[in-house]
Amino acid sequence: MTPLAPSLSIRDEERRQRAGHGGAVVWITGLSGAGKTTLADALQRTLFDLGCQVFALDGDKVRNGLCADLGFSLPERAENIRRIGEVAHLFCQAGQIVIVSAISPMRADRARVRALVPAPQFIEVYCRCPLAVCEARDPKGLYRRARAGQLAEFTGISSPYEAPEAAEVVVDSAAASVDDGVGKVLARLRQMKIIKAAQYQGE
C-alpha cells in the first residue's frame, strides 16, 4: 500500500514554532511629524534584538515604489492604504511581525485593513500629537509648504485626518519618550500572546 504523501501546506503553528512568535500587523497612524517612523524604527530594532522576525513598511518608501502611480486625493489615498494593507497581510501570513508607519488618515481605510487580519493579530497604534507640535517639528518642511499653498490635499491642513476611536495602543508622542511608546506596543504584543512573556522584560 502506497503511503500518503505528507501535506505540502505549512500550518500557522509550524510558522509560529519556527519563528518563536506569531505573525502580526502593527499599524502606526498619525499626522505627518507625529513620530510614526521614529517609533516604528525603534520598535523594529527592539523586536529584532529580541530574536523576532520583523520588518517595517514605511509609508513614504512604499509611496515611492509600489504606489508611485498614486496621487493624494482621498480615493487614491484609499488605494494606497489598500495596497499597503495587502502587503502587510502577506507578511503576517508568513509569520512575521510587520510594522506599518503610514498617515492612513481615514478610519474606513484602516478598518478595511483590520478586516484582512484575524484578531488579535492587528494592532492599531495611534501616534497622538497636536497639529501645532507637528508643525513646529516639520522635519521635511511639508507643513511650511502646505501653509504656503505649495502642497495640495495635505493631511491636517487641507485634507482631513480622522483619529482612531478605539486604537489598541495610544502613544502621546508630544510628551512620552520613544522608549515609552515601544514599551506600550511590546506589552500589547505580549498580552495578545503574539510574543512570549520571556521575550519582553519591560515590567
UniProtKB/TrEMBL annotation:
Q: Where is the active site?
A: 104 (phosphoserine intermediate)
Could you tell me which HAMAP family the record lists for this protein? Adenylyl_sulf_kinase
**In what pathway does it function?**
Sulfur metabolism; hydrogen sulfide biosynthesis; sulfite from sulfate: step 2/3
Q: Keyword tRNA processing, does the record have it?
A: no
Q: What protein name does the entry list?
A: Adenylyl-sulfate kinase
Which residues belong to any copy of the APS kinase domain? 23-172
Single GO term (MF): sulfate adenylyltransferase (ATP) activity
**Does the record bear Transferase in its keywords?**
yes
Give the reactions, separated by semicolons, that this protein catalyses: adenosine 5'-phosphosulfate + ATP = 3'-phosphoadenylyl sulfate + ADP + H(+)
Q: Which InterPro entries match?
A: APS (IPR002891), APS_kinase_dom (IPR059117), P-loop_NTPase (IPR027417), Sulf_AdTrans/APS_kinase (IPR050512)
Any idea which positions bind ATP? Answer: 30-37
Q: A Pfam family for this UniProt protein?
A: APS_kinase
- State the top-level EC class: transferase
Question: Single Gene Ontology BP term?
Answer: sulfate assimilation, phosphoadenylyl sulfate reduction by phosphoadenylyl-sulfate reductase (thioredoxin)
Q: Which gene encodes it?
A: cysC
Give the protein's biological function: Catalyzes the synthesis of activated sulfate.
Q: What is its EC number?
A: 2.7.1.25
Q: Which GO terms describe its cellular component?
A: cytoplasm
Family classification:
Belongs to the APS kinase family.
Keyword field = ATP-binding, Kinase, Nucleotide-binding, Phosphoprotein, Transferase
